[in-house]
Amino acid sequence: MIKIIFQKSKEVKNYIIPLIKEGYSQNINGKLNKAILNILQSEQFEGGEVKKYSIFNNNRLENIFIVSLPEKVDSNSTFLELGHKVMKHIDKKEIDSIFLSPIEGRNSNSFNKTELFLEGMLFGYYNFDIYKSKRDEKKELIVYMDDRVKLKNYFNTEKIGEINALYKSIFLARDLINMPPNELTPQRFCEIATTELNKNLKIKIFDEFEIKDSGMNLLYTVGKGSENRPRFLVIEYSGDERVNKKYAFVGKGITFDSGGTNLKPTGSIETMKSDMSGAANILALAKVVSESGLKLNATFYIPLAENTIGQTAYRPGDIIKSYSGKTVEILNTDAEGRLILADAISFAVKEKPDIIIDMATLTGACVVALGSDIAGCFSNNDNIYEEVYSFFRENGEHIVRLPLHKNYRERLKSKNADLQNISKKRTEAGAIMGALFLENFVEDTPWIHFDIAGTAFMEDNHPVYGEGGSGFGIRSLYRFLKSKEIM
Ligand code: BES
Ligand code: MG
Ligand code: ZN
User: Fold this and answer.
1) Which of 147, 227, 447, 474 could be stapled to 6 by a disulfide with Cβ–Cβ 3.0 to 4.6 Å?
2) Closest ligand 1 atom to the C-alpha of 422?
3) pLDDT single digits (tens) 362-385
4) Candidate from 362, 408, 460 with most ligand 1 atoms within 8 A of CB, to mutate
């Protein structure tokens, strides 16, 4: 995927030169250096810009990309965006011929901005062409850097190995999200998970009968309208037997959300193959955690179903007994994500984890409130929220905390059952209502819920994630978990 070579090379055709206080932080000699100095003297750059110049050098055309940083960098996403931007300009055939001058100055010991820039390049390099007759040749991204010791120490073999494991997982999640719903059924998702995951993981797949027999009736009910039957995938990772602490992750896996009997209209239904993004991201997290061999224990719970319309589909008015024992009156079959998550969360709670983190494309209301750049985040625990938030900020992934407002809880009380799956005040606080529904199933487990309805799948070109499935949050959650390793 990516390889860094610390030497000067004749292979280089693309020079990426971020402007820093010292000018740029690289010894480049000869004609090229003159050309760069020339450009710097004669041109003006606006912050956040990437400009491409071509010069004739070494008997061929070489490209210089001048990257000017904004005066004030308000988020680390800036470095990701710049990396992505440059990548978009580079000919795919030449991705093994890039030279990168670091963003940090000569005396720096840490190169995390340069690392973010490289990550942005990797996001920009991804493309989805599984279903094209003519597929791009997937070349390794080879980046040359100068051979100063501090740089070599920072981007050591371990670090590069970890970046590659991370992006292999992120690309898998993006592929899964982009896959069409006729191909990626609940069953198929489990098959792919089984082949993609390390053998050092324990995998249990519940089929529709086991789901029903074990009492996960909400998951069963949401999935029963489709001939692509529901599944429940549980992945157990034990990275260290010395610790008792357990992390639980849950991801919403609706392989297609038609809305069910409350059918979605044209305009809302087209992107609903991406309603399994939470599941894809959590699977990716399991993959990278196990491949990196993190010293901790975590279990990943992935409920999978297709929410379809039809004779055997569930209806508004149905009352279902959840895995927790609480009964739920269905008032809208399009509020299906919270139903399958409720059972998965209850199942996880039974194992007494120290923390539960779920990811779900849960509500259109979250998209209305925060758009495609920011995910909604809810938590019943301030300390854990703050800690997790710091990793999202460091990694340049935007989240905003929304309240689990207790006065709205009663809006989910049903006349005929313990709970109803939507609030009757339909136009109010939709993302909060989704989160408050889930809250009924977490008991007192510290819990974080990410509503990624806006950030999971990009309809337009996003400056970091590009188009389609994004893999939002995998990086941040992975690095949060890594910080939890026992030494
Ligand atoms: N999968 C949708 C939410 C969604 C909307 C994800 C747009 C991505 C983009 C979810 O299942 C849903 O349909 N939610 C309903 C809830 C409502 C019926 C209370 C919604 O948001 O309209
Ligand atoms: Mg729905
Ligand atoms: Zn949905």
Assistant:
1) 147
2) 19
3) 999 999 999 999 999 999 999 999
4) 362
